[in-house]
Amino acid sequence: MLRLAPWLITALLVGPILAGLAMATLPAFGYLPALGGHSLSLDPWRDLFAQPGLARSVAISFSSGIATTALSLTVVLLFLAGASGSRLDRWIRRMISPLLSIPHAAAAFGLAFLIAPSGLISRALSPGLTGWERPPDLLIVQDPWGLSLMAGLVIKEIPFLLLMSLAALHQIDAERRVALARSLGYRPTIAWLKVVLPSLYPLIRLPVFAVIAYASSVVDVAMILGPTLPPTLAVSILGWFNDPDLSRRFMASAGALLQLGVTLAALASWWGLECLVRRLGRGWVAGGQRQRGERRLRIIGKTLILLAAITALVGIAGLALNSLAGFWRFPDALPQTFTLQHWQRALPSLGGPVAATLIIAGAATLLATALVLAALENEQRSGCQPAQGQLASALTLLYLPLIVPQIAFLFGLVVVMEALGTRPTRWLVIFGHLLFVLPYVFLSLSEAYRRFDPRWSRVALTLGSTPNGAFWRVRLPMLLAPLLTAMAVGLAVSIGQFLPTLLLGAGRVTTVTTEAVALAAGGNRRLIGVWALVQASLPLLGFIIAVGLPRLLWSNRRGMRGTP
Known about the structure:
564 residues, mainly alpha, MetI-like fold, 2 domains, two-stranded antiparallel ribbon, 2 strands
């Protein structure tokens, strides 16, 4: 049975995406008999290109993917180069899990409450430093250039790229490389950039591509922070898909393919930038400069990552503050009164979405964990290396749901389900979440699983245990901490899913995320604060359990409390 795990993962990841893309392609060319499209036509594309503001929507989506990735990656690399081994490095590593657990929508709301004209920053500076007695007439949130959208994405993508980079660093023995370079007179930051970065980047290229794809096609964050006239391409497609005029679904399909093309263009542009940087960087690496700019690079790396972390945490604090605020006039830094009234009003309607969120996230995470454990255990028993055979294909395909824009294939997947007569149910939503949870659980658990000392299992086998017995009684208990951490990551990913829940659930399956994003159009900060804070708290509970449970169970076994 274990041998089937890589094939099952491959089928699970490839099948729905290919089917979704195929069924999005046919309506894009006018063929969808259920809606009266019985022949191929270019009319959907003509309607699409006739939409006002389409070029600007495409430009913002494209630039968001490139700029967000470039800034996030630069911050992560400069931080790793300049802060390795420092107290800031240790603090940031401890903060990765909490920062990664914050859903994108909650982080976006937190940033909006922070930078809005009447937000926390404006209140903290007024009227003493600005002279403002009223909120300034500035379009900061949902600005037409998408700058606030990019800022919100950067705050969330930095922890993801940092986690992927830290996992990859174990494979290249970075500390010894830097020590060797320093013995030749290189300063630490310059040494890291010259001898570690060239080997590290190929290992994190796929996560970088995933960030480009997500940033260029995101929906929930764009609905909160992105421009509105016109919105980003993905938000426009969602609006056409949900239009009461069903004939606009043909145009929505064409838009989905256009979004796929925009993402592919962003990926191709990034590849071109890679080639340019590689060519320009060879001279710098071989030039022999050992100290020039080292201090500046170190300060920039530490400052930017600290700013991103503090912004995310202060944003969440802003959500809590708004959820408890009574009368709060501008420019007062704090509310004049605090009240639980907003929570009392929201509690009756919170129960159903919270329960649905936990059920969907729990089921998707358990299924993903079972598949990942089966694949990794099969790898260990067969002696297959990660870069060989079936496992190599499965490992590469893990990023397929992350690189293909959600809006591009989920619409087609909905058409497939409708053609099969499948009604929107909670299990269908769980299946949709599984496509995105599975890659993150695998990436979070695989490194610890492969680094587990195989001699423990061999000792169990020599004492008469079966391979299955060694797995359940030795390997799994000793890997409890990384296993729970991977499950916490899976829960966080599932809780933050907006588009799969909305499309596959047809609006009938409500979760905390869908309700919180729906409130963005209302502008009620108190109510948004309540829902967004609940959304941010649910994944955090998973990480608290992941950290606390091993310490409780293994209180007298210090070596089993963390990752081996």
